[in-house]
Request: fold
Amino acid sequence: MSLATTPAILLRSHPYSETSQVLRFYSRDLGVLAVLAKGVRKAGGRRGGALSTFVQGDLTLYHKESRELQTFKEFSPGSTRRRTLGRDPLRLAGAAVLGELILQHAGSDRNPELFSALSSGLDAVDTSAERALIPTLLKEVWSIIRELGYAPSLERCVSCGGGLGPDEQGRFDFAEGGMRCPRCQEGRHGPRVGPRAREQLRDLLEGTLPQDLQRSKAHLRLASDFITYHISGGSPLRSFHVLETLIPKNHA
Reply:
């Protein structure tokens, strides 16, 4: 067992006893960590700093690779991200989508790029203008998907390899991980994606906010179904369902 310190983001917590909690972090150097924090539920906490969900700071723990549950020593918070998240259920649900996506698939490997994508994504959801919140969340979801190595193919048909014309309507094939051209759609399932939606999806994958994002709920369902098929083992992320119930009806 060794003493280790790493930048980390708290993504989930649950009680372990009357005085202790199990904390689940995503860390820059040790990936996803489950940590037993004794005494932090006492009045005033103990060595835990501000242990609220999505807080980011430096985590110090006693680490042993063969253990699933590590031992907490202390946490020094930096950014709390609660200025807006704590007052806005829609933002909080969006942040939960990013956190659950990481917990489902990130693993225990060191991945500074993925840690940075999560950190910047949570900051973006926290500070985004209200009218840009859903497009911002979609951009950050696809950014994490890209860092995980699962970016879909949009420019060429996943069946014949041919390019999709600027006015052609394709079909998104989840099993193959991308678009099918009109000539290769027969007998296939998956949502139809027109030229405008494909252009907006391309912008999101490239880290750009599309102008006048249309049908944001449809974009969220596409991202959710893609994650279900390729990342979360066939089970939809529960946070996506919560998020969808909070989105206003005019975002159909």
Q: What stands out?
A: The helical segments are 89-105, 112-127, 133-147, 195-205, 216-230, 238-246. The chain has six helices and eight strands. The mean pLDDT is 89. The radius of gyration is 20 Å.
